[in-house]
Amino acid sequence: MNGICVENEFIQVTKVIPESPAHICGVLPGDIIVYINKECVLGTWREDVLTLLDSFSVGDIVNFQLCRGYALQETMDSRIYIVRGRDPSNLFASATRGGAWHYLLVDKDKKEAFLENIKTRNLDVADYGRILCSGWGEYPPQDIKIKMNEEYGAKIEIHSHS
């Protein structure tokens, strides 16, 4: 289960990992964490909650009390991915230190297909959305990452395809 803090008012679940204890218990994205082991965390700073969670050891029983929150809206940054291409011939990889990369804004209606197909086959990323920025090398340079974060608030997942 992942969470975000909204203006130090509450921590809201943003993602539930399939087959995790949270998933099995019915936790949903949008749920709000109210108590952790009988300690109220409403209005608590995110860092303090992380410190509390870090205090538990593997195997400890941790009880959460949640409030069913509102459904989270998909944001543009949840559809932006860095896609790294592979160069099987190594024709470009040696000269560019890693091949090509693309920032891709995936179309809403194509996101599920993109996430499935990126795992298993060659694909033309332009078929799944709009390429926002491209370049050569293993990863985008820092100035490009900063620009993408400023323009799109992008929290980027990196995907490789062949």
Automatic annotation (TrEMBL):
PDZ domain location: 3-70
One GO cellular component term: cytoplasm
Domain of life of the organism encoding this protein: Eukaryota
GO annotation, biological process: signal transduction
InterPro entries per the UniProt record, alphabetical: PDZ, PDZ_6, PDZ_sf
SUPFAM superfamilies listed in its UniProt record: PDZ domain-like
A Pfam family recorded for this sequence: PDZ_6
Protein name (record): PDZ domain-containing protein
